[in-house]
Design brief:
Layout (H helix, E strand, L loop, with lengths): L1 H4 L9 E8 L6 E2 L7 E3 L1 H14 L3 E7 L18 H13 L4 E6 L21 H18 L3 E4 L6 H11 L6 E8 L6 H6 L19 H13 L3 E5 L5 H10 L4 E4 L2 H12 L5 H15 L3 E3 L3 H8 L1
Parallel strand pairs: 1-3, 1-4, 1-10, 4-5, 5-6, 6-7, 7-8, 8-9, 9-10
Antiparallel strand pairs: 2-3
Helix pairs in contact: 2-3, 2-11, 4-5
The chain binds ligand PBG.
Length: 310
């Protein structure tokens, strides 16, 4: 009877798999802080994408991890057509065609030697408007490399409008924008720092949101809608279900939520210690995120959960 009357059901197509591609490695590199997740080689990434298709996952979100020597202050590797993320986008598109939505993280932090999501001004502060120019170029390069959807995650003001214009300018109205609308400055990004070999010292409080606030999320939402977002996202997911519910109520676009690295690793760590039932905990968190209003969920468990749902 519970099954019959359940209000919330997970489906493989709800799920999007975030994946890391690392430049210059011959074998996948395990991420210690995220047991079960690796930095992929080009080959292992193609395999992971094929597996995701097979399981019925609807998308893959790619993050590039360049070699240390390829990081600089401008994040040049992020706009180099031969940069690792662009190489991976082409690889994955060649592998999956249109059977899986190929998405790209559109942000400079993986490519800058200072680790910030934007370029810096003379005082070492993130320069919002100079960063927008870099994002415009990045969007075009990612579209050329095969991204169906770009995911701007840097939280610069005006980023959605600039990216929409840049894509339209090169005739790529078909590339959609998944806007990181409400992205909070969170401790739960911790394990991601290892995943992308981040160079960041300090924090992102000048451009990510304050966990204490919800009103600015609705303001960010209005701006993203006006600037041309096709889908909007709340991130992290678990500690921000109230934000997710408000955003989902306020908008008629698809709403996504990102169950981030720390949310993943907490469950894996507690399960490893035998303190929690792993699979139940995973399904409970995903069900909660969907119940709160997410149409789609980015989760490192996407393929595994989709396989179990089948
Ligand atoms: C920025 C970005 C981050 C994540 C996704 N995109 C890191 C940050 O904002 O500090 C975090 C994802 C996760 O923790 O799983 N490019």
């Amino acid at each position: 009877m519970r099954r019959m009357v359940a209000e919330t059901r997970l489906h493989p197509a709800d799920l999007i798999l975030p994946a890391f591609i690392r430049e210059g490695v011959g074998e996948p590199v395990p991420i210690a802080a995220m047991p079960g997740v690796v930095q992929h080689t080009r080959d292992s990434l193609k395999k992971a994408a094929a597996e995701a298709v097979e399981a019925g996952v609807s998308g893959i979100m790619l993050f590039g991890v360049p070699e240390d020597g390829n990081k600089d202050a401008q994040g040049t590797a992020g706009t180099d057509p031969e940069g690792i993320l662009q190489v991976a986008l082409r690889d994955v598109r060649a592998e999956v065609g249109d059977d899986l939505l190929v998405m790209s993280d559109l942000c400079l932090d993986e490519f800058t030697d200072h680790g910030h999501c934007g370029v810096l001004d003379a005082e070492g502060r993130v320069d919002n408007d100079a960063t927008l120019e870099r994002y415009a170029e990045m969007a075009q390069v990612q579209a050329d490399a095969g991204a169906h959807i770009v995911g701007p995650s840097g939280m610069m003001d005006g980023q959605i409008g600039v990216i929409r214009d840049a894509l339209d300018q090169i005739g790529r109205e078909d590339v959609a924008i998944l806007a990181y609308t409400a992205k909070y400055s969170s401790a739960f990004y911790g394990p991601f720092r290892e995943a992308v070999a981040s160079s960041l010292r300090g924090d992102r409080k000048t451009y990510q949101q304050d966990p204490a606030n919800w009103r600015e999320s609705l303001r960010e939402l209005e701006l993203d809608l006006a600037e041309g977002a096709d889908m909007v996202m709340v991130k992290p997911a678990g500690p921000y279900l109230d934000i997710l519910a408000r955003v989902a109520d306020a908008v008629d676009l698809p709403v996504a939520a990102y169950q981030i690295s720390g949310e993943y690793s907490m469950i894996e760590a507690a399960a490893e210690k035998g303190w929690i039932e792993r699979d139940r905990a995973i399904f409970e968190t995903l069900t909660g995120i969907k119940r709160a209003g997410a149409r789609n969920i980015l989760t490192y468990w996407a393929t595994e959960v989709a396989q179990k749902l089948r």
